[in-house]
Amino acid sequence: MADQSIVSALVLGVIEGLTEFIPVSSTAHVLLAGHFMGFKSPGNTFAVLIQLGAILAILAVYAAKLIHIALALPTSAQARRFVFCVLLAFLPAAVIGVFAHDFIKTVLFETPQLICIVLILGGIVLYVIDRLPLKPRYKDVMDYPPSLALKIGFFQCLAMIPGTSRSGATIAGALLMGADKRSAAEFSFFLAMPTMLGAFTLDLYKNRDALSFDDGIVIGIGFVAAFFSALLVVRSLLDFVSRRGFAPFAIWRIVIGVAGLIGLALWG
């Protein structure tokens, strides 16, 4: 395995961890960076499989809360409703993802121009939503009703188009449906757990015959880098959005999308 692959995996892993839980589309950043770095993985699995590192990061940060919820399930209707809401929000993406997996990976993941355009459009939409005079009705993820969770789940399906951003779609949907900014970001964290784990499992199964030992090493390096960089983001994001909102991320999306189109025009 070439040293260049190791360096690329490390860089892409850091990018994945830093961008997974903010509404800028980690998949778009990893795919575009990989494109310009000349990095290739069988079936474009790298961008999906290293997300496991980000999943473990959020599990580590929220371990105490997850254990508390699990222990409260037998006696707390609130805890049972919350778990049900997360699973309900996960359901639309699970169903659509299984049937659309091959199209997403072989067509959408292979179209960097589309990714850049979606980054720009998504940035504009996120900026507008962030500036709307919305009046939040829900400020605690534990109090989200199932109807709200299901609507957020349908918004999450938009993220199957690379560049949309899973967290961006769920956050935007939650804000429009009456959630405040902090709880919208936190619910996106919890919804990421089954969604990303499901995507990881499906992608690993679909590409089990195409992966080699060297691929495993590269993915492992990206996984570790994603884990540690995601830890930094998860621990600080909620406080950041409470103070600054999502406009900085919207602007970042537009800048990266425009830069990506320029890069594609100049270097292909």
UniProtKB/TrEMBL annotation:
<dbReference type="GO" id="GO:0071555">
    <property type="term" value="P:cell wall organization"/>
</dbReference>
<keyword id="KW-0472">Membrane</keyword>
<keyword id="KW-0133">Cell shape</keyword>
<keyword id="KW-1133">Transmembrane helix</keyword>
<keyword id="KW-0961">Cell wall biogenesis/degradation</keyword>
<dbReference type="GO" id="GO:0005886">
    <property type="term" value="C:plasma membrane"/>
</dbReference>
<dbReference type="GO" id="GO:0050380">
    <property type="term" value="F:undecaprenyl-diphosphatase activity"/>
</dbReference>
<keyword id="KW-0378">Hydrolase</keyword>
<keyword id="KW-0046">Antibiotic resistance</keyword>
<keyword id="KW-0812">Transmembrane</keyword>
<dbReference type="InterPro" id="IPR003824">
    <property type="entry name" value="UppP"/>
</dbReference>
<feature type="transmembrane region" description="Helical">
    <location>
        <begin position="112"/>
        <end position="129"/>
    </location>
</feature>
<feature type="transmembrane region" description="Helical">
    <location>
        <begin position="82"/>
        <end position="100"/>
    </location>
</feature>
<feature type="transmembrane region" description="Helical">
    <location>
        <begin position="250"/>
        <end position="267"/>
    </location>
</feature>
<dbReference type="Pfam" id="PF02673">
    <property type="entry name" value="BacA"/>
</dbReference>
<feature type="transmembrane region" description="Helical">
    <location>
        <begin position="187"/>
        <end position="205"/>
    </location>
</feature>
<feature type="transmembrane region" description="Helical">
    <location>
        <begin position="46"/>
        <end position="70"/>
    </location>
</feature>
<protein>
    <recommendedName>
        <fullName>Undecaprenyl-diphosphatase</fullName>
        <ecNumber>3.6.1.27</ecNumber>
    </recommendedName>
</protein>
<dbReference type="GO" id="GO:0046677">
    <property type="term" value="P:response to antibiotic"/>
</dbReference>
<comment type="similarity">
    <text>Belongs to the UppP family.</text>
</comment>
<keyword id="KW-1003">Cell membrane</keyword>
<feature type="transmembrane region" description="Helical">
    <location>
        <begin position="217"/>
        <end position="238"/>
    </location>
</feature>
<dbReference type="GO" id="GO:0008360">
    <property type="term" value="P:regulation of cell shape"/>
</dbReference>
<keyword id="KW-0573">Peptidoglycan synthesis</keyword>
<comment type="function">
    <text>Catalyzes the dephosphorylation of undecaprenyl diphosphate (UPP). Confers resistance to bacitracin.</text>
</comment>
<dbReference type="GO" id="GO:0009252">
    <property type="term" value="P:peptidoglycan biosynthetic process"/>
</dbReference>
